[in-house]
Amino acid sequence: MHRCFSFAVLVTLLAGCVSSDGSPANRSLDSFNGESACYDRETEPYTAIVDTHIHYRPFDGRAIPFEEMNSYLSQTSVRFANVYGIGQMLPAYSACSNYLKCPGTPVLPTTRNDFVNAANMMEHRPDNLHLTLSMTFTDLSNPEPTIELMKLYEKEYPGLFHWMGEVNLVKQAQFNNHHVAASPEDITQWAGFMTELRTRDYPITIHSDLGNNASPTLYLPLMEQALALYPDNKIVWAHMGLSYELTTMKSSEHIAVLSRLLEQYPNLMLDISWRILDDYYFSKSNNQAQYVAFMNRYSNRILPGSDFVAFRNNTFKTYQQELEVTGRIHKYLGDKAFRDIALGQNYFTLLNLDYQAPEVCQM
Q: Given this structure, which CATH class describes domain 9-350?
């Protein structure tokens, strides 16, 4: 049994239990390189060690500088992150920064954000964070160019990208901005790039709205088709399929759908990013116990994330709040689920990283 002791300040700091002033301290990246002091849930943060869903680039390209964004992570518990761009951008000529306020303005797939992320990574790779670059350009309703673009990425930035997504199968929020949901025929045309992803062992994060308040499972057949056609791919379903268009689904029905798919498709994972999950589902008193039980049961199939967008007007406090809200559910998880999800073991396993989550301290 391992505990942290206040009389050994140096050991305490290395273990990350508390700082010298008694406040919670954040562990270093190196502390995940092997066995480390156990994680004391009473004194250490419940927010995640890994942010698997964070957008370093916004829809209009006017972003928080890369090094500043890294400093935001460094000030929190996060030591590992997926560097998403945003694959769909507003036109360069547009004065719009929020597509929801600009119906009719196209928000279309592009490589621009990904290449900016890659250039920033080459120039400003941090020493105290482990960042995984993700390709976000893919248009799932027009998949034909994807493989050639993947080759271009590898030519320009060899070995730098190890993930694909967040990419949109169906995103109702962008229907007024020229987004077209992938059709069943389109999904069959993913075969080439999905094979390439399997060959490279890259996960893919898919945004696929489950449905809406009028019809909670309206779009479920699209996701089910993708899972059925590509069962060997590492597919991460973003936001558990939820969205602002679906805020009233019964938790029991939502959990039943997710449980069935997790049982049927062993390579499927879920991410619990975006604060709408807490605002409309996890935080409800009659829902919380159900979701905690679900996550405890499927603890090795869930990834944490903030879904923060690095728009230039957002601040560290904004990121801190998003990380805290999306991590509140961690407080109620069992120790195994907490280690798998919040402490990053699922992420390390998914990417075959040579890192290890600490064990949770036992009383």
A: alpha beta
